[in-house]
Amino acid sequence: MASPTPSTEVPSATVARGSEQPAAQGKPSASSLPHPTRRNLIWLTFQYLLRIVFTVWMRYRVRGLEHIPAAGGGLILVNHQSFLDPLLVGLPLSRPISFVARDNLFHIPVIGWILRKTYVMPINREAASTASIREAVGRIRHGFLVGIFPEGTRSDTAEVGPFKPGFLALLRRSNRPVYPVGIAGGNDVMPRGPLRLRPRRICVVFGTPLETDELERISAAGDAALIGELRERVVRCAQQAADWKRELDG
User: Fold this and answer.
1) Domain count, the chain
2) The pLDDT value given to residue 99
3) E strand or H helix at 190
């Protein structure tokens, strides 16, 4: 496949907390955070290699990159199909995304080091602390795109599951745009079970962002209305990705 263009083909980054440590009381200072739009050498190397693997092995395709700005913080909401999802969303971008990952993954040799060097933030899913929320909000305000999976866990099917409401605190405290993203084919390439990759096509669609004024208007109708609208935007992107995937597969 030809080299990626801003609106059609290939990939860019996942998310993590670098080697930096959060500031006192768990709130990161601007000086402790990496640059929000400049990729480090470790991520750039992974990105370059994985773009080749994903494009050839999985026939990876992406569209809608024009919706992601070159700078400015925001929240990226993605449907969750496989462990590959952070990579599938980050690979086509020219700026890093800071995803959240289970804190126990950071204790695994090599994997923990990679996560720290690729902008990932740890979170305890059993008891998400205010310190974790403060760090994520701090990153968004610093100019990072922070990625989360509102379903909370991988879907057993291609369908988008219900959204858990916990992400609303992050959305409201950060007061930044939301970028919906839909993935199709991730569960075919890496289904639940043994960790192995299968040669299947993957398509990713970045949807139209919801700006802060639109989010405030929807939020006025209550949490249920806001969650419903945000889920609908992600579902729409996932459906567009699935339709595109079927079209390419013939």
Assistant:
1) 1
2) 93
3) none
**In terms of pLDDT, which residue wins out, 21 or 145?**
145
> Which two structure tokens, joined as six digits, stand for 240?
């567009």
Place of tokens 């990226």: 76
Read off the CATH number of the domain in which 83 is found.
Answer: 3.40.1130.10
5 within some domain: no
Q: With respect to residue 202, please indicate whether it lies within any of the assigned structural domains.
A: yes
Length of the chain (residues): 250
* Pairing label, strands 178-184, 121-123: unpaired
Contact at 8 Å (CB) between 207 and 237? Answer: yes
What is the domain extent for residue 115? 24-249
Residue 204 lies in a domain: yes
Look at the block and give the residue holding tokens 């092995």: 57
- The 3-class SS string of 62-106 reads EECHHHCCCCCCEEEEECCCCCCHHHHHHECCCCCEEEEEEHHHH
Separation between Cα atoms, residue 120 and residue 101, nearest integer Å: 7
> Distances from the Cα of 78 to the Cαs of 25, 82, 208, in angstroms?
29, 11, 13
| pLDDT above 90: residue 198 | no
Amino acid identity of residue 96, one-letter, is P
- DSSP, residue by residue, 4-67: P-TTSS--B------S----GGG---GGGSPPSSS--HHHHHHHHHHHHHHHHHS--EEE-GGG
Q: Is the residue at 14 inside a domain?
A: no
- Looking at every residue in the chain, the average pLDDT score rounds to 84
